[in-house]
Design a protein that fits this description.
With about 350 residues, the chain is mainly α. The chain is built from 13 helices and three strands; from the N terminus they run H-H-H-E-E-E-H-H-H-H-H-H-H-H-H-H. It has a three-stranded antiparallel sheet with strand order 1-2-3.
């Protein structure tokens, strides 16, 4: 009985203390307006030279909720924060960096000549699997075209671990959109193999020290898992040896829980940080989580008409900006998918009431 109640308290749906039911029982719309994670660090200098060292995570970005750690720094090389005007294409610095990495990869794996980036990306992940990488869902790279009858065409690519990238150029054809998405995903996949992208003891100490300095914390906080900085250290140490791409995939779950108001709801249900970290560090993002969050948004829309369309418009803008800047997209894309699922559920409810 106690285990059943505990499982319900840890559900991602925004419930009330009284019922402890997963899903929605009257969630406030205000939960949707929690502050976003901090902005990305400045873009790395471009060059065809050695791969840059990874900057440490900046600040305890999830703020509210249970004071969980921030997402890691964005992967790869990025353009400026503001997207280019429509049709202007990606920043030259990003385009040149991507081409340089693709050429380098082609040179070391296929010799000189034009590289088929779609094939190269798939071969890269198959090679990782053959060398013992733990790919629970296999090595298949999945592409998704955004429905459109005219250019520019947009394509997303999801890597075997769940990380997502998108076409970052103006693409006049669907084939070009697919290649563009494969290029940025290949660059990040290659970058992710560099030793600087691994979570090591040195990286953890540096990151925790910078977090303490940013928040005027003391060393005792870092050693106490009941504090935000202690939880930050716990998350890093639990993922020691993993790459930034793998850590980003894990952090996407916590980012979504924060965005949806789930962390705040779990705190109100008397869930401890340790319980939440232990539960969701080992739980993949699945349809059950998506469906419960979608139902929360159905509830918010019913309580505050227009909330869903406003959040969807904001999410689509964020997704486009991140895509054009060459950033990892899973958090933004999962948000959009959850909101679209909620819109579909609302449509079904309206149809059944007619």
């Amino acid at each position: 009985m106690m285990e059943s109640v505990r499982a319900q308290r840890l559900q991602p749906g925004v419930g009330t203390l009284r019922s402890l039911r997963p899903g929605v029982t009257g969630a406030p719309a205000a939960a949707a307006s929690a502050p976003p994670p901090p902005p990305a660090p400045p873009p790395a200098a471009v060059a065809t030279a050695p791969l840059p060292a990874a900057p440490p995570p900046a600040g305890l970005g999830l703020g509210l909720g249970l004071g969980l750690p921030p997402p890691p720094p964005p992967l790869g090389l990025q353009g400026p924060a503001a997207p280019p005007p429509p049709g202007a294409g990606p920043p030259a610095v990003l385009r040149e960096a991507v081409e340089a990495v693709v050429r380098s990869f082609a040179k070391h794996t296929q010799g000189y000549g034009r590289v088929n980036v779609v094939e190269a990306l798939q071969e890269f992940w198959q090679m990782k699997q053959s060398r013992g990488a733990d790919l629970k869902n296999g090595a298949l790279v999945v592409y998704e075209m955004v429905p459109s009858n005219s250019p520019p065409y947009v394509c997303y690519v999801t890597l075997p671990g769940g990380s997502c990238f998108g076409s970052f150029q103006f693409c006049p054809t669907k084939a070009e959109a697919r290649r563009s998405a494969a290029k940025i995903a290949l660059m990040n996949s290659v970058f992710n193999e560099h030793p600087s992208r691994r979570i090591t003891d040195e990286f953890i100490e540096k990151s925790v020290s910078e977090a303490l300095a940013s928040f005027n914390g003391n060393r005792e906080e870092a050693d106490n898992p009941n504090t935000g900085i202690g939880a930050f250290r716990f998350m890093l140490e639990s993922n020691k040896g993993k790459s930034m791409l793998e850590f980003q995939e894990l952090m996407t779950v916590f980012q979504l829980l924060h965005w949806n108001g789930s962390l705040k709801a779990m705190r109100e249900r008397q869930c401890s940080r340790q319980e939440v970290l232990a539960h969701y560090s080992h739980r993949a993002l699945d349809d059950d989580i998506r469906n419960q969050m979608a139902m929360d948004w159905v509830n918010r829309e019913q309580n505050s008409p227009g909330a869903l369309s406003r959040e969807l418009a904001s999410t689509e803008r964020e997704l486009d900006e991140a895509r054009l800047a060459g950033k990892e997209l899973r958090f933004h894309k999962e948000k959009k998918d959850i909101l679209m699922l909620a819109a579909g559920q609302l449509g079904s409810m309206h149809s059944s009431n007619c």
